[in-house]
Design the sequence.
């Protein structure tokens, strides 16, 4: 039986920051890989 698209996206694992391992708070239309903390360290 095929899974509905909504269930497919609900079951995807959370995105994790490759720098620190913290879960990334995703937002629509966002393709960022790092968390806000690691991104702010890079801009310094």
Sequence:
């Amino acid at each position: 039986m095929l899974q509905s698209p909504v269930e497919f996206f609900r079951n995807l694992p959370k995105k994790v920051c490759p720098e620190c391992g913290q879960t990334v708070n995703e937002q629509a239309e966002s393709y960022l890989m790092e968390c806000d903390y690691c991104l702010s360290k890079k801009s310094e």
In short: The chain has a mean pLDDT of 86. Residues 1-44 form one domain. The helical segments are 5-10, 36-42.
